[in-house]
Write a structure and sequence with these properties.
- 4 copies of one chain form a homotetramer.
- With 340 residues, the first copy, chain A, is α/β, with parallel strands linked by helices.
- Chain A has 2 domains: 125 residues, 3-Layer(aba) Sandwich (Rossmann fold); 163 residues, Dihydrodipicolinate Reductase, domain 2 (2-Layer Sandwich), CATH 3.30.360.
- In chain A, the strands form 3 sheets. In chain A, strands 10-11-9-12-15-14-13 form a 7-stranded mixed sheet. A 6-stranded parallel sheet of chain A has the order 2-1-5-6-8-7, sandwiched between helices. In chain A, strands 3-4 form a two-stranded antiparallel sheet.
- In chain A, α4 links the parallel β5 and β6.
- In chain A, α1 crosses α11, α6 packs parallel to α11 and α7 packs parallel to α9.
- The longest helix of chain A is centred in the C-terminal third of the chain and has 16 residues.
- The first copy, chain A, starts with a strand and ends in a 9-residue tail after the last helix.
- Chains in contact: A-B, A-C, A-D, B-C, B-D, C-D.
- The interface between A and B is large, with 42 and 42 residues.
Chain lengths: 340, 340, 340, 340
């Protein structure tokens, strides 16, 4: 059995990792840590885990963590990962980082968007962007995988099939995103408390969200020319789920069947992508507590434009479950193990 | 005291009308009707009204309604209004219709979008579109006011200032709308029940929503050339509030201060419009249970584009309170009476 | 593989049965039916099932259902079960009925509380009340199991350990229950629509809820003398979860450790019951999407009373998952199969 | 015009006070303070107030506050009020304290339940408990009013009429309370964040909530003998509203009409109490954003018991609006001014 460590086990992503990995048939939870007031059994912190797992969770002791594990998930804030990932890597461990620290190829862009200088830029070239639908072969051989952000996962999966055939107009693709609140993390901040969020819709960080550079990097790699986006994220009062509604212009006329065909062909062997029949739109609950991404589309012929709607569970395909999919690939397991 | 009738008093809009008009200083609730199982006092149906109003509410008896009232609000489904409005008009009553029946100037477009032939097209020319910020002078003299739809109110108020100066690109303005559930009406339909809606985000009627023709009609009148939109409405789990996030392209470069200036100038005397400082985005709760529309904006200079965010309470400025504003104007009252 | 039929597959309970049984390792979904407008694949009705199950769902054709299955779950309204259960039984099939039709031992009490005459009272003696913690041995041999109601499951499991030792005062045990909205069923009724339920707390059927007779029947069997309860259910705005807060008087002084000991002893071998440490209270999310019942308690010494708090997922231990637990027992599978 | 000060204007109660007092016809908002990062206009902090009020809000400067105001509302945490109230009182100002500091008559009981020694016990005798339905005459003459807690308001109003005639059994009255989340305050605490609260029901502080002593003090004064209660509060996922479900035993048989009569007689002149017809239960939304308390009841004859259900808006009658009612009484205004 592979021995698993989770660093940052008490955030929403960490919690989801614990729940999913508890039921995974060929791995064993071996080490947990988190910033907590005092070390205690994880099932004391989350009573829903009673009977499923019996492990202490306290401050990270990195030597113990290295000794106990074969592979570690870093579910910690950005800047923390770049401190600790190198130590696990040096000890020969596989690392799946769920922070933003290793997603960007360019340390300067990291500094611009995250406001801090990158401390281990030398690791960026070896880090593989963990979107299996695009980088499966690289993930197989990777020691360090940078698990994608939640918004980028939904957006990139929703647009990738349009990278072929020269149809898409790469300027100013419009992305209107709506997310549930677990996406904001498990932190005691005033704007996150129930009565501030409930019965409210809020747009935030218009064209300033740090996920923009990640989206642009990946779309540009796909299309092989500069892609720019307009990105407006919104928070709405629910726990889980992301819907991105994307408005794409085309360079040439496209038919519904051609459009659907692009998607079905691109994702023909993908176990976690669902392409809906033309005109059907997915809802976030279609993918609740799963690793699926579900995509619907509709053309506006007169405008040579389409609306693409992509949904994921922000803690599922948008974080923890995609990380488990990456683990399965990195370790040579069946890719869907523990995820279906 | 003006005597008020509300036809359709038990829907969400009707209920809001009753609540607002109960507290209005110069009118008197005189007649209520609704499709109900049996006639009973409105405060039996809505216990929150106990002590505020004491009137029976049963099936519409039109002669009684005519006798009892000076002005009537029709808070009924479309197709019903065009049956009953003519009778009130003929009797010399003022009519504020909250259905879609008299909003469109062209009976053929009505038929195309609402799927039924208009029965009283001869009334369309005299009906005034009840958006006071655009048509105040006409509303003053109107006998029949067509109260705007909820989405169109938020959208048109959000875009109207851009109609001047030739800046706006009128092709394919993108409108991504999010609404609370009272917008769907008080009807026993499966997709509306709590556990279907809660913890879910849903897009619907992509580029097919019946409010599109109303938006296009009014924007075209404003800009004086054909305006086309791409419109995607979404339902999110809250009771009240609409946010529309609009993506506008410009023909020429525009600065933030110029943009804000357009809005502040256009609405300089408007009591119910709030233009936020540049870069600040409104939230739906800023306008909860009010007649305000609050508008924020942000430019993407490299794209010659802007994001405009407009919020209203769908039952407030989006329906009942705007109807009361129209009543105030039609009857020569101070326009803000009962609304601040 | 055992072949499974679900009659009533599109209600919330039916849907949960489908989801749980899809992942069950030793059974095979073989037949689905429901009252639907037209027959279609279940994964068309519930897109979350795409890739998990591929079966049509249309009106019940009982002969086909009999032919296709070894065991059937009846997730239908009361009165429907007593029509169709006999046919499955006669054909030698095992039946797990999730309606109220076979829970009560006395047909007159059924008639009093449900307002209809029982049509197959002769089956009542053979029906086993499907609460494994109390009737495991009988369930093993049963052909017809009456799956308990959601409130009764939470209440009976919360009080059963007090049946021993003569401590409990059986008069007027007070039960204050709070439920999520899936408990009300997937039906297009006005009081169930989102904006009626959201932002509201409602008590209903005070001392008149039909689950009272089921609770009293079972508590009386346990204590072996007449038990009477005061029962007030409330609906609160969430999808899933029941909390019952029970106020129990004692005939003699009892200590915290004695009280906890009753519970730990009574449930010492139960895989789905969690007894919390003294003074800790469970939350509904501790048991979300599980078959667990979690119980906390606290004594008021001066009052010779205790507060017992019991939580379940109304669709889990309160309906579908408990039904699967019953299936496992009836079929000789490991009891926790597909449930942990 | 009376000049009003609000100390603690940015909590939920403070915010509600601002909103209600803005619309009050005979007072003028003159001074606001709160613990904020920097002083700014209150309408910057709460955009919903734009156009309604134009006042800065920064740290409390007590001399300025004294100079600017005739009457102050203290919407601050307990222990803060007892520091600052004396200064306002000494300067001859009227004080309405919304904290717990002056509600209890006995400083030792305060210390026991709130865990701190009272600093100004000499003020307790002059403080009037601000429940107008019980203490109107004293409030008229008071300089210092202790505005009741939210739970106590709902409970005491729900039980007060039973204090007469010797019917009620005063031992162990059972009170099961459910509250919306604004009752927990506007504080950045982990258990208050949206995803912790949403989709969950939680009981807390069973028989240990600090409002218990306030309830027992007032019920004991009313009944004129020792009253004891069992009190279990619960949080449910909504913003506003408290429902208390109370289980009362009687010493002698009582009829429905007698019971209702007690309530209607006791509250016959009260403008903010609604007694519902026998068997009808109130919902929290009946009193949303109002100063009403609505009470329903049902007898269990065989148990000589009744269920009393009392609802208030925790920020309305449970805090800010009741404080305004107290102000009206203290200042000789019409009692309902600004509240209907």
């Amino acid at each position: 059995m592979f021995k698993i460590g989770i660093i940052g086990a008490t955030g929403y992503t960490g919690q989801e990792l614990v729940e999913v990995l508890c039921e995974h048939p060929v791995v064993k939870m071996a080490y947990l840590s988190a910033k907590v007031e005092k070390e205690q059994n994880i099932s004391k912190i989350f009573p829903s885990l009673v009977g499923k797992i019996d492990l202490p969770c306290g401050d990270l002791k990195i030597n113990e963590a290295i000794k106990a594990t074969d592979i570690v998930f870093l579910a910690v804030p950005h800047t923390v990962s770049m401190e600790i990932a190198p130590k696990f890597l040096k000890a020969g461990k596989k690392v799946i980082d769920l922070s933003a620290d290793f997603r960007l190829k360019n340390a300067k862009i990291y500094q611009k968007w995250y406001g801090v200088k990158h401390k281990t830029p030398q690791l960026l070239p070896q880090a593989v962007y963990g979107l299996p639908e695009l980088y499966r072969e690289k993930i197989k051989k990777a020691q360090l995988v940078a698990n994608p952000g939640c918004y980028p996962t939904a957006v990139i999966l929703g647009l990738a099939p349009l990278s072929e055939g020269g149809y898409i107009n790469c300027d100013n693709i419009i992305i209107d995103a709506k997310t549930g609140m677990t996406g904001a993390g498990r932190k005691p901040l005033l704007p996150l408390i129930f009565s501030e969020v409930n019965e409210n819709i809020k747009a935030y960080k218009i064209n300033e969200h740090q996920h923009m550079c990640e989206i642009e990097q990946e779309l540009t790699r796909l299309v092989k020319k500069k892609v720019s986006i307009i990105f407006v994220p919104h928070v709405v009062p629910l726990n889980r789920g992301i819907m991105v509604t994307m408005y794409v212009k085309f360079r040439k006329q496209i038919t519904p069947s051609k459009l659907i065909d692009f998607y079905k062909t691109f994702y023909r062997n993908e176990p976690f992508i669902r392409i809906l029949d033309y005109g059907i739109t997915p809802q976030t609950k279609d993918v609740d507590k799963t690793n699926y991404c579900s995509i619907g589309m509709k053309i506006d012929e007169k405008a040579k434009a389409a609306v693409i709607v992509s949904v994921i569970d922000n803690l599922g395909k948008g974080a923890a479950r995609q990380a488990v999919q990456n683990m399965n690939i990195m370790c040579g397991f069946i890719e869907t193990l523990g995820l279906k």
